[in-house]
Automatic annotation (TrEMBL):
Keywords: Hydrolase. This is Alkaline phosphatase D family protein. Residues 157-465 form the PhoD-like phosphatase metallophosphatase domain. CDD domains: MPP_PhoD (cd07389). Transmembrane segments: none annotated. It comes from the Bacteria. It is an enzyme of class 3 (hydrolase). GO terms for molecular function: hydrolase activity. Residues 57-143 form the Phospholipase D N-terminal domain. Its EC number is 3.1.-.-. Residues 529-559 are annotated as: Disordered. It holds the Pfam family PhoD.
Amino acid sequence: MDRSSRPRSGATRRELVATGAGLLALGAAGALTTPAHARLLATGKVRGLGRGRFADGVASGEPGPSAVTFWGRLRTDRPRSAARLVVATDEGLRDVVATTLVPTSSAVDHTLKARVGGLQPSRHYWYAWQSADDVSPVGRTKTAPPADSRQAVAVGFSSCQSYPHGFFNAHADAAAQDLDLYVQLGDYTYEYAFGDYGDLRGKGGVDFASVDLRTYRDKLRLYRADAALRELHRLHPVIHTWDDHEVADNYTDGQPSPSAQQRNAGYRASFEWMPRIAVPGDRFRLFRGLRLGRTVELLMLDERQYRDVAVVGRSILGRRQMEWLKGRLATTDASWKLLGNPDLFAPLGLNPTGEGLVDPINFDGWGGYPHERTEVLQHLVASRIDDVALLTGDVHMFMANDLMIGGRSVATEYMGGSVTSPGLDVLEGTTASVVRGINPHIRFLDGLHHGWAVARASDQRLEIEFRASDSVVSGAPSRTLARFRQDRGENRVTQVAGATRASDRAFREDPARAPVAPGTPLAARAARIDRAATRDLERRARGGAAERALRADRARSGR
């Protein structure tokens, strides 16, 4: 890898200066989009470059104060190829600070990854990938603040982006914001074939069930075809953890579980397509910490890979991850401890004290593992750890929760809605008054809207904003749904804008469900939603009944 503050030799400099002949030849192919592309496309004779086109966007992730992971992908029929990564301090790619040649092959789906060091903290960098006959879009990334910095940071987060259910307007909004990092909290893809779970968009295209390595890769390519998702990856560093649908719905419930081969195929494709580097000796490890100065320590959790399969109540994290989490919480000196948490942590069911007495709805989340949930909260109390906030996905709603133990809130949880996946029907048949009465720790709940959220942290304050948009209208704008403020040491949710409480509004009928004339497109859409809701409720009922029976059997046998 060649690093410098500027190109280090005349030859390198000449690579970045376009020649008229090169511009004309490549411009005729329609490849030129910016002056930066022009300069790079004129260097097609760089030694070692292979052939291939860049049709899947670019991405960056895992930002540190001096290093970032970069991602790209070549489309080529050749079994092996290579591309050059160029990193610069300017969008025109004139002030180049690093270049490296990265080989790839069909064994990794022709994806490209490079971890580039020697960068400056808290700084934007621009980058592009170059092959022998194409140049990628120019991406932008940002390094993390210095380890001792107390500067404010902004972290966006979202989950549950079902392609056939709507448009990723949330990502277009997030791409336009000033963020230090974006966190994907699971269900980045859905394994269903078109029509099995949503059919608003994609009709006539190729949307297939994902069951093996080829189809998991194809599914990722389909989702990356979305312009808003590509733009989010192009402009912000992203860190991702999976939930269940990257492999199969609730695949750890044992009803039945997918084969180890299918599970590994889903994991492998996810690693190939995300801007992350594998941990040596632990190929699919996702849980890791990412420090944003002394303001934020982000602890990303994996709540699928290590949980006990078909055994409710034992472990959702696995012992090794649990001890890692407790150790990092106890030793960090960051003002705010943010947990990238794929599944709902707060109890949801019959919980007048907010401490998880009965949790019949959320067996697939932390509600199915109450002992580990209690262990985490007791650790916060015993170690006197304040200012922990969970950034949560999975349940397709906006929620803000106090996390209670011993009659007081010791941490908070913010769920950033779903990008498109349907959410209202998760609680269909449950009235808002009953939910509020038996779950007073739920400070805000909205099951109608879709979108994303952003956490803005300074040394003394954490602010959360929920942003919502119409996911069934392409290009619909976003707006603020609610805002929350949390000062150091408070450990509770305080809403400062938006709906005043977890009101009945969150459970009223979607306008799309109002009576409509039979045979109209709106009536057909309402029928599709009803069918999907019925299947979801039936699945949850089956799973909950099986898990309650298992618990009863264990209680009778004394296990």
